[in-house]
Amino acid sequence: MAEAAANNAHGDGDTTRRDFIYIAGASVAVVGVGATVWPFIDQMNPAADTRALSTTEVDLGAVPEGQQIKVIWQGKPVFVRHRTAAEIAAAQRDDFANLKDPQSDAERLVQEDGQAGQPAWLILQASCTHLGCVPTFVEGSSFGGWFCPCHGSDYDTSGRIRRGPAPKNLLVAPYLFTGPTAIRIG
Amino acid sequence: MSGPSTYEPKSAFTRWLDRRLPIVRLTHDSFVAYPTPRNLNYWWTFGAMLSLCLVVQIVTGIVLAMHYVPHINYAFASVQRIERDVPFGWLIQNMHAVGASMFFLAVYVHMFRGLYYGSYKAPRELLWILGCVIYLLMVATGFLGYTLPWGQMSFWGATVITNLLGALPLIGESIKNWLMGGFSVDQPTINRFFSLHYLLPFVIAGVVALHVWALHEAGQNNPAGVEVKSKADTVPFTPHATMKDLFATTLFVIMFAIFVFYMPDALGHADNFIPANPLQTPPEIVPEWYLLPFYAILRAFDFNIGPIDSKLAGVLAMFASIGVLFLLPWLDTSRVRSMRYRPIARQFFVIFFFVCLALGWCGGKNPGLILFKVADFSATLTWVEGGQVTEQAIQAEGAAQWDDASSAAVAAAREGGATMTAVTRTGASTGTLRTVSGGETRNAQVSADTADLLEEEITHVKEEAGQAMPFFSIERRSPARFTVTNFSLLLTIYYFLFFIVILPVLGLRERPNRVPDTIAKPVLNEAQGAS
Prior knowledge:
Number of strands of chain A: 10
Strand content of chain A: 15-25%
CATH topology of the largest domain in chain A: Rieske Iron-sulfur Protein
Number of strands of chain B: 10
Distance between the termini of chain B: 18 Å
Radius of gyration of chain A: 28 Å
Strand order of the largest sheet of chain B: 8-4-9
CATH superfamily of the domain at 284-374 and 482-531 in chain B: plastocyanin oxidoreductase
Oligomer: heterodimer
Radius of gyration of chain B: 32 Å
CATH architecture of the domain at 284-374 and 482-531 in chain B: Orthogonal Bundle
CATH architecture of the largest domain in chain A: 3-layer Sandwich
Strand order of the largest sheet of chain A: 5-6-7-8
Largest interface: A-B, 33 and 43 residues
Order of helices and strands of chain B: HHEHHHHHHHEHHHHEEEHEEEHEEHH
Helix content of chain A: 25-40%
Largest sheet of chain B: 3 strands, antiparallel
Number of domains of chain A: 2
CATH topology of the domain at 284-374 and 482-531 in chain B: Helix Hairpins
Shape of chain A: elongated
Largest sheet of chain A: 4 strands, antiparallel
Distance between the termini of chain A: 73 Å
């Protein structure tokens, strides 16, 4: 009787009820292992307090024309540049120049909510798109803007890559005018 | 390889122990009775030095961890405190820092030894692969450790390397943030790097145990590359190999000590004595000397390869340069192990060795540095003095017609007697044309060693001519030149050719030297044990 039941349980074909138990057991084990491992992987992601520091307020009144300040946003430096009329003109003139990563100056000023920015204020992430060094603003450099000392990438007065190994323009930091002379980055 | 155990416990205690935990037997079989080939040369002593290095790094590291503070504000100062205030801290910190360099020096000799004598071939493929795993772990540990003193090179090295992972498509950014624990290299990063830097050496120790196990299973290769055939071809590990290893290791330790006591910082970078500053990039970012060849491969690409941009290409090439080592046992098709009997392969090997050194040199140089050029950078400036300047607007019907409209306007101006013209595009379909007519044409030639110096010269000429000149027409000529980046690319190509083309093809085509009679036939007389 027991033997007959056992035979029955194994079935006659290739697929047996035992196979089902193996697969079901293995599936549960995989889910269990995954659920156990995940917290140990996810703990390395940015923590809540790190994420909470994700916006920075900047008072633009303190930045005279032709100067820039570096502010820290998410632990990374951000350039807040008060551009001169000449820099703005140069940036707009080069909208149609031969660009590696074509983008117009106006597109680079757009605020987080999609509204147009102010040409005098350029808010850029201060990290070279090549390998993350901080470029320096060099007066009278080949393209009038930033130069990366690490591997020699040259950016123009709109922060667009013009020469050197960097593949992309300097990233625009997401920002919003919260008043006539105040912005919030992030 | 070692055959049946010859250990016989002598005392009552060792007999008791041997029945319960045969640890003395294991040690005896592995490091005393273990048969080593008679003909091993001094290149076979680096394994012992590497074991010593691992022990030194772990012991000094554990001690340093008692004083080190993994915090962005205190890490730098805590290392300085170890150097200055902690009793013998200067010694232990220097041993650890110099020890890393010594570890890599020894491992490179060890790897080139394996490469030259074909120690990766059957039945030692896994032995070689475990060695590659150890090397990879060493690179990771070395990189993590270099971050901890939190100097400028530490910080920016960590930034550059974590950004490498950001080059991977789609998942790069998430992996980067996951690794850094934030959006930049910061407190979470140093904390976890410290934890992992403490962990990995023990993982290395575990893999080393597997490496030694695999070694003792397959037996050592030897300079002839011919498997030992009988007991007569071998000598017991102790005292023969033990004494030889001890002698070589002593010489190694003397060199180690010279660095520790007389020039502890000679192998490091001066910028790492400046505390990390996220707002200021050092003028050049270079890794420690032992990673320079890979850094050169990373920077060898300054052009896009189809859909792969230059940055990703560099990252992939760098990982592939280590990855290819894992495949080596199957890439080398030659049935002869030792390059002693492979006259052509030996020449390619020598070139490969110098290519690796040259890659290291490139990694330490500014990539834009010009090595050779056929002529100077030069430019011709043309301008008109005292001419009549006119300005007119150009209006094209649309962006697509811009080129036609502007060249038509220029042609018309030339027709009208203009000596110089300049077009400035102000919008998609609008622009201005400025022309100069009459006056006296002047020109000047300048030349310089680099493109940047040329620009300075040009500015200089402009200033002399007077900025009031309406405009200059400048024709710049860049000579054909060969930079460090071009050189790195050439070397990188050879690096991969060696593994992917030369070794597989040569193994099938090359005619190896005859094995000397002394290897095939016993030359020692019967009395000395040849059978």
